[in-house]
Amino acid sequence: MSARLERVKLLYERALHLEPDSHAEFLQRECADDPELRQELAELLRWKASGSFLSEPIPRLLQRDEVPPEDTGAVADRIGSYRLIERIASGGMGTVWCAVRDDETFAKEVAIKLIKRGMDSAAIVQRFHRERRLLAQLEHPGIARILDGGTSAGGQPYMVMELVHGVALDVGAQLLPLTARLELFAKVCDAVDAAHELGIVHRDLKPSNILITPEGEPKLLDFGIAKLIAEGAHDSTLLTRTAERLLTPRYASPEQVLGGEITTATDVYALGVLLYELLCAHSPYESCATIRELETAICGDAPRRPSAKVRGTTRRQLRGDLDTIALRAMAKEPERRYPRAGALAADLRRHLRHEPISARRDSAIYRAHRFVRRNKILVISTLVVITSLAFGLGYAMLQHQRAEARALEARWTAYVSALESAQAALRSGRSAHAALQRAPEELRGWEWRHLRASADLREPWPYEFRTGSGLCSDAAGARFALRTGGEALVVDASTRAILFRRRIDSEATPIHISADGALLLLGEERAIRVIEVGSGVERTLAVRERPRELALQPDGRWLAASLPTRNQLELIDIEAPAQREQIGDVHDNAAPVWSRSGRRLVFLERGGQAFRLWSPAESRSERVEAPSLSEPPVRADFSPDEDLLAFTSAVGTIWLWSLLERRLLPSPLRTEEYSTAIRFHPRRRELIASGSGFHVFELDSGRRRELPGPSGPNSTQTELCLLQQGTLVVGSGSTGLNLWRWDAEAVERRKLSRGPLDGLAIEPRGQEVAVRSGQALTVSDLVAPTQPATLSVPWRPGALSYDSEGRWLTCARRGAMCFFDRRAGTSSTLELTDAATEIIPAGSAGAFLVGSVGGELHWIEASGTARVQRTLASGLGTLADLDRDPASGRIVVLGSDGRIRELDPFTKRWTDLPRSPEGRARQISYGCAGVLLAACAKEPLQVRLSVWHRPSGALAYQFVSPAQTSAGFCFSPDGTRIVLASSAELLVLDAMTGRLLLTLRDHKRAIHDLGFLPDGISLLAADASGELLVRQTLASGSDRW
Amino acid sequence: MKKPIDELLASVRRGDPQALAQWNEAVYEELRRLARAINVNGFSERDSTLNTTALVHEAWVRLSGADGLSRVEQRREFLAYAAAVMRNVLVDYARARKAEKRGGALAALPLDDVLCVASVHSAVDVLALDEALQALHAIDPRSARLVELRFFGGLSEAEAAATLEISLPTAARDWSYARAWLRRRLRSGDTPR
After folding, report:
1. What is the pLDDT of residue B47?
2. Would you state the pLDDT for residue A636?
3. Can A103 be counted among the known catalytic residues?
4. What gap in Å lies between CA A448 and CA A1031, rounded to an integer?
5. Model confidence at A326: pLDDT above 70
6. Measured between alpha carbons, how far apart are the two ends of chain B, in Å?
7. φ and ψ at A1012, to 5 degrees?
8. pLDDT tens-digit map of A782-824
């Protein structure tokens, strides 16, 4: 340490022991010789840290979320006259327990909220008693009632509330169509309004405080409680602020952030944010990283319209009224919002009825527009005009609905026929793209994407040009751009259509396409042209010379342009082009590349011996040096997870730099030939490098393979770009443009055993699949296919399941279960008194639900070597199958006698559900976030699928297919499709209507088991021939789901 | 095939120095994977988000567990190392959240809570602190290291002093000096008391 620093510290320490008054004198005396030192010390003493700064280390903060010991240890098993049964939740304010009143013969369950210690108990209780009468008046079906309150023997304040079963608003509303979501939300507003009527403000509305009951009705929790706590805190300034801050900054209004007056308009603001999120599934201020940023945004930034955050049909639905309603509720000034929640509900209902909303300015055009919407039929057809005049508006509405139903029916028919023609085209080797494009966009599901993947992969070089350079593609590989024949082209990778073409002034024009595919950038002599591909609208950014390379940050803000004669990289903020930064000492072929998140930019330094990593957030750069002077690097790319930076030297060595460890990984990859282009696969840890053809390096397995396609000394590739999520590789080289396939087929066949594959279990992250076949149990890696590994089981394996984390795999047989710890590679056995018929994950790490032949339902936990076993129910009769709804935790069991019963885990009550009308079902499953319940029965010569609407218990439809055998069915992870196995065929059905959409016939023998990967991309099915078929889809930019 | 973490821990307990390095690597790998999962899984399921919180805790508890390690120096070495990892994870995460302007990151993620609580209880914006610490490191590496150990690693004053091989009074002095220095640098907006 330098002597000076030592001196600063010593003097600082000595000064600390003095009274602040004498600091000036002390400094005067001690640093008379060094005014600079004096200045520094004076400042340090002024900022001498006090209060909370750095006082709580991060690890302690991490543990803070856990239940504090006083909440577990000190809680007696009873509070007042209530007996605590189990803890339901814990949060910022305390814990919530399920309890029953002991002294009553009919024990009604209630929820008890125990307020955390540290809040001023006496003040809270006092206030509670004062407000209790008011809160007791709050009776509304949409509000959980507050029944009682007091102080426990240990001095902890508590409140007794009605116990509500349900899921949080955001979960419950997720899968509802827009109108149903709005209707539900209007009911939430009604409940809030009932409280506003009494002058009670909630202050802490958020999804977890709004539960949706199994009946589909909203129920609000904690009315009036935030106020009790906020005002009951010790210190009226600091702690209140802390308490308020710890509440829910995401839904806090400007007046809450600024400490202004809390009124009913405060709740309206929170409702506005909730509505915003329900509409577009994005938070209004989601870019804020810290609380401070969020608070600043809440008080100052105008949120973007919800419609601007979505695309396609949804955008059209939101634009206009719904944007206006949400933004009015979220106005910064309370007086500009709806005065009460009821006014917000009224506007939402007006919108649903196609009437003018109050939040709109009453322009004549707007009202006319609404009138037309309202009376669509009336405007369209004269005949209906007469009818509706005669029968009134109500009839017109009915007609409208019927017409919509007919139109929907027609669209479905068109959809199914488009799929059929696409399949026929694929079978006869023709292009299926035209047929696929005919399918109505809003109905497209997994089967459509699967067919399109098959279609894409079968095309030979499908484009009308054969040479070109400057290859680049958007992030999804849905569009690419290149220079060819004196033109710049933008091409849709899937439809092959040329979306945009334009003459360029020179073959040296650098060309770049934005990550979302919407912008094409061309570098000309003194300007960069930024062209919107869709509209052709363009603007120019002035530059001092023709850039050699262009790279636009993925979120479209910073444009990096390399200026070769100046050895500079110019960074231009394309939203504010005057805003520029120059980075000097840059190689004249700087090859700038952005990481996927846009957090980092890499480029080559002058001299060509090192890359520089630049991050726009900090305007800071870091050097990555090439390890060998004789192998100068040329191109770099980031891995999709941004762990690695790979860079290649022209002589074929690829170095990997770990961005987290900031070091070079020891063993480089080698192509052993001239490699100028490298890219990472967008989803996997694989790297492709050019040469004579293309080399693929699988980073995890260390394997290297060559892509089949043109190769040899005359086919050296100098550029590459990836299409269709990395499945297709376009290379440009001496022989022109060619196409390689990174993945060969949309249906991957994997022979896993000689005998039939009896059953499979898919690891929940989609990493591996476990398959049982005869006596053997094997696991296969799904990501980097290798030989299956055999797990030793001392018996013929039966029911098979992974836990929800994918760490434990279990396999049953009569009287025992075997557990495999996939992380540790160990296994152990548990004796059962009974034979397990089915095992499913129980939702938490290491936990399983097991149904048995003897009619018992067990909860079994595998942790380390000890296993906890609990019997949840017995005497259920032989269980054929069971399922658990992850959203509500409900468990459904199917008896071998066809009886279907459901267990509510909170009340521990069983409910009988309608039986399968005919035949005996063998398999049961929840679908669509618990909205649907489906059961499948194998009957003589046919398979029957019955689907119920769970909340109402009504049978939605049945689907019957002729079949010799059936392995049952599964729901797609998005809940919109059911795949039913029927002998060797897979039938894809629309889950809501049971409409048959597509039949997949690639299995040779009867299917034995099937399932989706959780990402919804791959469908797996195992069959009697010992083959596992993995059917994939590809995502592209225009088709996100 | 790498040795599983638990097995490594057993070797570390037996005092095998090579196992220590491997354990470091394994835990680092796990935290890194975790950081990645948190960064990338904007669309992760509700359940798995909760489980990620649990994982953070688990990783931390396993890292810092007092009875996990018999030899005092080893425990210190771990904690020092863990402090650096924790800092990296948090800073990377905060930066990602900041840079993330769109995408399905609707769900509040577990580390948001940490950042939020950090800003309330410790009056700290992690990104700004990281930057200030780098500046401090340039002129006084020992103090910067001390802050990392104590704030990001949760080491006690004595543990931190032992790790840096300095006396307790020196550690106390450095700590006080570093806090003042950082606070001046951050100029958190409020007036000095």
Report:
1. 33
2. 93
3. no
4. 12
5. yes
6. 57
7. -95, 150
8. 766 667 888 888 788 888 999 988 889 999 877 788 889 888 8
Would you call A337 helix, strand, or coil by DSSP? coil
Query: A502 touching B, CB under 8 A?
Result: no
- For position A269, what pLDDT does the model report? 94
Summarize the confidence of residues A496-524 as an average pLDDT.
Answer: 91
Environment class of residue A94 by beta-carbon count within 10 Å: exposed (0-12), middle (13-18) or buried (19+)? Answer: buried
Contact A290 B5 (CB under 8 A): no
Q: What are phi and psi of B54, to 5 degrees?
A: -60, -40
Q: Among residues A190, A193, A204, A881, which one is catalytic?
A: A204
Do the Cβ atoms of A889 and A843 come closer than 8 Å?
yes
For CATH 2.130.10.10, the residue range(s) in chain A are: 792-913, 917-1031
Q: Tell me the mean pLDDT in the region B4-30.
A: 59
A738 φ/ψ angles, rounded to the nearest 5 degrees: -140, 165
Q: Which CATH architecture has domain A792-913?
A: 7 Propeller (2.130)
CB contact under 8 A, B177 and A12: yes
Is residue A523 very low, low, confident or very high in pLDDT (cuts 50, 70, 90)? very high
**CA A434, CA A429: separation in Å to the nearest integer?**
14
- Helix (H) / strand (E) element for A656: namely strand A653-658
Q: What is the pLDDT of residues B52-69, one digit of tens each?
A: 444 444 455 555 443 444
- Which of A806, A796, A744, A792 has the alpha carbon at shortest distance from A774? A796
Residue labelled with tokens 């979320």: A65
The answer to whether residue A622 neighbours chain B at the CB level (below 8 Å) is no
Residue A747 or residue B40, greater confidence: A747
A285 vs chain B: nearest CA distance in angstroms? 9
Interface of A with B in 169-228 (CB under 8 A): 171
* Whether A702 contacts chain B with CB within 8 A: no
Interface of A with B in 264-303 (CB under 8 A): 277, 281-283, 286-293
Q: What is the pLDDT of residues B155-176, one digit of tens each?
A: 788 878 888 888 888 888 899 8
Measured CA to CA, the distance from residue A82 to residue A103 in angstroms comes to: 8
Residue B66's SS3 state is helix
CATH code assigned to A917-1031? 2.130.10.10
The average pLDDT across A425-437 equals 84
Q: Give the DSSP per-residue string, A658-726.
A: ETTTTEE-SS-EE-SS----EEE-SSSSEEEEEEBEEEEEETTT--EEE-SSS-SGGGBEEEEEEETTT
From A486, A493, A477, A476, select the one nearest A522 (Cα to Cα).
Answer: A486
For residue A302, give every residue at least 6 positions away whose Cβ sits within 8 Å of its Cβ, in sequence order, or none.
Answer: none
Which one, of B55, B58, B63, B69, lies nearest residue B10 by Cα? B69
Give the burial string for A495-520 (b: 16+ CB within 10 Å, else e). Answer: eeeeebeeebeeeebbbbbbbbbbbb
- CA A662 – CA A623 distance, rounded (Å): 10
